[in-house]
């Protein structure tokens, strides 16, 4: 189909055609474009452009076209410029002038935005579903390890004893926020662009509220220039994907480190591991390594989408065509990565005995300082005295748990009548506050997320 006949009559340049053509990317809009055309045909009948018989013929032809798409007929792409041109050409070839009238009052500018918004609504709901499932998996694994001791770190240095369940739940709550971001983004995507035209709005008195309802949107967009010139919905969806994968990447990095035999905290099931083409002994945590890499791609797509629009003069310019490849890649990457991460974690085997071996008694130094505070010592002085004692023991190649009674009494006479009992489990129990690492607190966190999951089922 020649869209520009009468104004652009030169034969197409092959290089320009390759640069301009978007069908290889936007072919996935086919079902949405068919839906857009169905609703638009109905509205054109209402305002008298189509007769009832013509509208029915449009709908029947669109049904047959969609069936051809689902049968795989368009796996070998035709030579059309984009999905909108393809749909219109197929209608016109079968219905002649009736098909040629389908574009009345409409621009590809509002048509593509309408297809995009429908697509993003569906994909955001799919993203929420995958996140829901992953958070559920995390809760289940954490429940198994509410009391499993783990050497908590800051700066990758020994910090305080925590539990594996507590560590895992930190990811659960981060992903809850990503779920909420996706849910929040839906409210901004839930606006119908159809009827905004090329820039100034439709030249026919179409009922945009009715069109919005029939397409599954809650309302039409409010300004035609904003509708066709902005791509912030694509940018926001890409950010939701990038935020999610960035969260997963941080934990994947931790799991890669933990799978090294020097730690030995976790072993990945064979289906989520790979070997080496040269070294027969290798068992590599490639699933987690690829999660890290996918996060970089998602972050790059956000930058692409922001950079794409930052200097585009209003209203529409062809630059905006480049939004789809980046947002499609973000969504595809996020949906796949979330599933892989969840299934890999579900089948992973953690080693509590090895985790316990890595605990060091200097992690109990804060408990000692806190105990001094309970004896009336100002915390800053308690901190200094504890640090001095840890250094004293370190110089003697010993640690807090094997300090002698005489050493404790000499450095901390406050405990002479009531000897201080330091221990990893006792350290956990001290932190039974909301959000803390005590097993009872972790159990409460699991319940919070489980209750939230039950309230947010589709």
Q: How is this fold's topology laid out?
A:
Elements: H1 14-20, H2 23-26, H3 30-46, H4 52-70, H5 83-95, H6 97-100, H7 108-144, E1 149-154, E2 157-163, H8 164-189, H9 208-214, H10 224-229, H11 232-259, E3 266-267, H12 286-309, H13 323-347, E4 349-350, H14 352-358, H15 365-374, H16 379-395, H17 405-411, H18 424-430, H19 439-455
Antiparallel strand pairs: 1-2, 3-4
Care to describe what's here?
It is a single chain. The radius of gyration is 30 Å and the shape is elongated. The chain has helices at residues 14-20, 23-26, 30-46, 52-70, 83-95, 97-100, 108-144, 164-189, 208-214, 224-229, 232-259, 286-309, 323-347, 352-358, 365-374, 379-395, 405-411, 424-430, 439-455, and strands at 149-154, 157-163, 266-267, 349-350. It has 458 residues and is mostly helical. It starts with 13 loop residues before the first helix and ends with a helix. The chain folds into 3 domains: 14-100, Fumarase C, Chain B, domain 1 (Orthogonal Bundle); 108-357, Fumarase C, Chain A, domain 2; 361-422, Orthogonal Bundle (Ribonucleotide Reductase Protein R1, domain 1).
């Amino acid at each position: 189909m020649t869209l520009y006949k009468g104004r652009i009559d030169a034969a197409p340049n092959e290089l320009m055609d390759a640069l301009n053509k978007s069908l290889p990317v936007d072919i996935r809009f086919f079902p949405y474009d068919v839906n857009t055309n169905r609703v638009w045909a109905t509205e054109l009948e209402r305002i008298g452009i189509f007769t009832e018989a013509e509208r029915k013929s449009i709908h029947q032809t669109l049904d047959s076209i969609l069936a051809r798409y689902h049968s795989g007929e368009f796996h070998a792409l035709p030579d059309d410029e984009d999905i909108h041109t393809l749909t219109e050409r197929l209608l016109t070839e079968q219905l002649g002038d009736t098909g040629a009238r389908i574009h009345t009052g409409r621009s590809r500018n509002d048509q593509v935005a309408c297809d995009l918004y429908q697509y993003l609504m569906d994909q955001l709901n799919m993203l929420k579903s995958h996140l829901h499932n992953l958070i559920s998996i995390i809760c289940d694994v954490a429940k198994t390890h509410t009391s499993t001791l783990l050497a908590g770190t800051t700066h990758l240095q020994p910090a305080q004893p925590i539990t594996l369940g507590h560590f895992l739940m930190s990811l659960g709550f981060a992903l809850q926020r990503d779920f909420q971001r996706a849910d929040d983004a839906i409210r901004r995507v839930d606006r119908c662009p159809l009827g905004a035209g090329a820039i100034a709005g439709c030249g026919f008195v179409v009922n945009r509220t009715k069109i919005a309802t029939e397409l599954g949107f809650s309302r039409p967009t409010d300004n035609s220039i904003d509708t066709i010139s902005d791509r912030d919905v694509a940018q926001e969806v890409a950010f939701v994907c990038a935020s999610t994968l960035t969260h997963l990447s941080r934990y994947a990095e931790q799991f890669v480190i933990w799978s090294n035999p020097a730690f030995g905290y976790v072993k990945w099931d064979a289906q989520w591991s790979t070997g080496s083409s040269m070294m027969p002994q290798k068992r590599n945590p490639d699933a987690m390594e690829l999660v890290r890499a996918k996060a970089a791609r998602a972050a790059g797509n956000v930058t692409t989408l922001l950079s794409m629009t930052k200097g585009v003069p209003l209203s529409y310019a062809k630059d905006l065509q480049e939004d789809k490849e980046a947002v499609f890649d973000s969504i595809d990457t996020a949906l796949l990565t979330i599933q892989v991460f969840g299934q890999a974690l579900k089948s992973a085997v953690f080693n509590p005995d090895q985790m316990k071996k890595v605990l060091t008694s200097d992690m109990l130094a804060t408990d000692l300082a806190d105990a001094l505070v309970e004896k009336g010592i100002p915390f800053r002085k308690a901190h200094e005295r504890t640090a001095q004692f840890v250094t004293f023991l370190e110089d003697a190649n010993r640690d807090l748990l094997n300090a002698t009674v005489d050493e404790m009494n000499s450095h901390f006479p406050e405990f002479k009548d009531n000897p201080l009992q330091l221990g990893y489990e006792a350290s956990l129990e001290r932190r039974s506050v909301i959000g803390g690492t005590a097993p009872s607190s972790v159990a409460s966190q699991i319940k919070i997320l489980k209750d939230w999951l039950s309230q947010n089922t589709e």
